[in-house]
Design brief:
alpha+beta, two-stranded antiparallel ribbon, 2 domains, 9 helices
């Protein structure tokens, strides 16, 4: 199933962009035929959504149901259906990359199965081993020596992950004032992590989970979670996960989102810390 998702997201995002561009051109060629207007309405918001996600200003989260994509896809499909005349192409675009594709993306692809998660609030952070960007092994006991925020992210290829890291970097001082040290963990290589670390002007520590050993132990490995076509990255990755511990290493908050587009804001961590008993 995960392999199908990895193929789907690549075909869907690329196909929607092509369909939107073609529909835009056909609007003018067809003298704004209603069927092509419907195809455009159904696919253009999706193309804009994915294009925006690839920019440096991408958001760290979205709404769960994405009505800004679902509503136009329904309207566009309906218009293409009732206006379909000589060419079936606009209806095919509106149906496949519009309505059906959007429904699959929102309610199927975006969902994460968290049944194997082994992270519980109130328990001490378990033992596992990561690697720093220099290749040195670091045991999780190091994270139990002070309050820590461990953010497991999928990799530099993930725009929502990058946007979330930017948020954390921007809020680092607020976390530091509360005694929290930030660790950013991914399965990508030391070289990729070193390159990523240089992009942020904040004393955050990037760690590598080699062969996803820690992710497997914590039950947050995402088999075939990397979209097809991402060169330089393994097909398996980690589910987006945030773990906040107190200065004794006890887990005081864990975000195990079941939707990769729905993630906590930095203020969530700060509110949790501020409400901890002294």
């Amino acid at each position: 199933m995960n392999k199908l998702k990895a193929i789907f997201i690549t075909l869907y995002s690329m196909g929607a962009m092509f369909a939107a561009i073609h529909s835009t051109a056909m609007l003018f060629i067809s003298d704004f035929n209603n069927a092509w207007i419907g195809a455009f309405i159904a696919t253009a918001p999706i193309a804009v959504f994915f294009a925006y996600m690839l920019t440096k200003k991408s958001t760290a989260r979205t709404s769960k149901n994405l009505p800004q994509l679902l509503v136009p896809s329904v309207i566009g499909f309906g218009l293409a259906l009732v206006s379909q005349q000589n060419s079936i192409m606009p209806l095919m675009y509106a149906a496949s990359f519009g309505l059906i594709g959007t429904l699959l993306y929102v309610y199927w692809y975006s969902h994460i199965n968290r049944s194997a998660a082994n992270i519980k609030v109130g328990q001490t952070l378990p033992d596992f081993t990561l690697t720093d960007t220099q290749g040195e092994a670091v045991n999780s006991s190091a994270f139990r020596q002070q309050a820590s925020l461990l953010l497991f992210f999928r990799g530099s290829w993930c725009p929502l992950c990058m946007a979330q890291i930017k948020e954390i970097a921007a809020s680092y001082k607020a976390l530091e004032l509360r005694g929290v040290k930030v660790f950013l963990v991914s399965p990508q290589s030391e070289r990729q992590s070193q390159k990523l670390a240089k992009q942020f002007d904040a004393p955050m520590t990037f760690m590598v989970d080699k062969n996803l050993k820690a992710a497997k132990q914590l039950g947050i490995m995402h088999e075939s979670g990397t979209p097809v076509g991402m060169k330089g990255y393994d097909s398996d990755t980690v589910m987006p996960t945030a773990i906040l511990t107190d200065k004794t290493g006890k887990i005081i908050f864990a975000d195990l989102t079941d939707n990769y587009r729905v993630r906590p804001e930095p203020k969530t961590f700060i509110n949790i810390l501020d409400n901890q008993p002294t």
